[in-house]
Amino acid sequence: MITSKIISNGILRALSTILVVGAILYFLYEIQTVIVYLCISLILCLIANPLVQFLKNKLKFRNSLAAATTLIVFILLLVGFIFLFVPLIISQANNLSLLDTNNLQNQFMQTERSIEAYFNIQHVDLNKMLKDSKITSAFGIGYFTGFINSLINFLANMGMGLVSVFFITFFFIKDQDAFKASARRILPDSNEDKIINSITKINHLLTRYFIGLLLQLTVVFILYLIVLLIFGNQNAFVIAFLCAILNIIPYIGPIIGTILAGILTMISMIGSDFQSEILPKTIYVLIGFLLVQAIDNNISQPIISSKSVNSHPLEIFLITLISGITFGIVGMIIAIPVYTMLKVILKEFFPNNKIVSVLTERI
């Protein structure tokens, strides 16, 4: 018989559970920055694994020396990355400071009249459109100065984050064996082997995935660089590098990179004739970037991604698409790593399930 006391106890337990879950979620929300640092450090640790193993096994480095050497490599890469972009920022700041928006607007009007005369289309008042949209004002030096100030503030705030990430990464690399030993003592005996096997497989597959991702970005960077060098683009190396980094975001990243390449190409040619020089060169660069994306999307990306995590290219595409629709850009970025982790866990704990066996037959 259900009494009021049983009902009240059930309500109290439900409320207690809700409060505990809410408190945990609130706590995780408050320390979200720390969680991001941990995730970034874990990814760096996975990427560094081949180098660490080489230093320890081939060169006989101790854990501390191997971790310190790997961290120095990361720091040097970061410093090189920063010095790559300083010249680009200075160059584009100078270009924007010399920009004559009235002249640019006149060049747009001349281009519009040429198009009208060729195609005999209905007149479109670009002059009014530009004024209404305030596009020309966006090219002012004041806008760029504000952007630079925001960038400086962002970099200043990221200083502590970089120190924290490198500090955590050092100990992740140095003491990863000790962490695994501690995990063995904490884990329940009944599932200890399954959990350890899952962690080992996940570590192996994600290491391959992030190394494969770096390989893919390198291929895209080289192709972008070739396109920009063919058309004599200023700062070709830096622009190609930045656009290649944007490829981390599946499908959307390449589009953003192509638009960015077009904008930087136009800015780098300020002072030239818009119709005969700037516009044709920009179109050629955009076509070249689209060809690179076609190669990457249909050849390098499916092959590298599928081989690194042992999944079918169509499977990778569908998971990325679904994650993007459900969780946006962040979902697209983390889709493959999370899906790989889930597959490994499911195979380890439910190996006899027919659906799981089909999905994980390549692992």
Short description:
The chain is mostly helical and 363 residues long. It has helices spanning 4-30, 32-57, 63-97, 101-119, 126-133, 135-138, 141-174, 176-186, 192-230, 236-245, 252-268, 274-309, 313-349, 354-359. The radius of gyration is 27 Å and the shape is globular.
Summarize this structure as a short list of keywords or feature phrases.
363 residues; 14 helices; globular; 3 domains
Into which percentage range does the β-strand content fall? under 5%
Oligomer: single chain
**Total number of beta strands:** 0
What is the average of the pLDDT values? 76
Gyration radius (Cα, Å) is 27 Å
- Overall spatial form: globular
User: How would you spell out the order of helices and strands?
Assistant: HHHHHHHHHHHHHH
Number of domains: 3
The main β sheet shows up as:
none
Spans of 5+ residues with little confidence (pLDDT < 50)? 135-144
Number of helices: 14
Can you give the helix content as a percent range?
over 70%
Query: What is the CA-CA span between the terminal residues?
Result: 52 Å
**Protein structure class:** mainly alpha
Q: How does this structure look, described?
A:
The protein has 363 residues and is mostly helical. It has three domains: 31-98 and 142-186, no CATH class; 100-138; 198-363, no CATH class. It is built from 14 helices and no strands. The protein is globular, with a radius of gyration of 27 Å. The model is unreliable at 135-144 (pLDDT under 50).
Please give the structural blueprint.
Layout: H1 4-30, H2 32-57, H3 63-97, H4 101-119, H5 126-133, H6 135-138, H7 141-174, H8 176-186, H9 192-230, H10 236-245, H11 252-268, H12 274-309, H13 313-349, H14 354-359
Helix pairs in contact: 2-3, 2-7, 2-9, 3-7, 9-10, 9-12, 9-13, 10-11, 11-12, 12-13
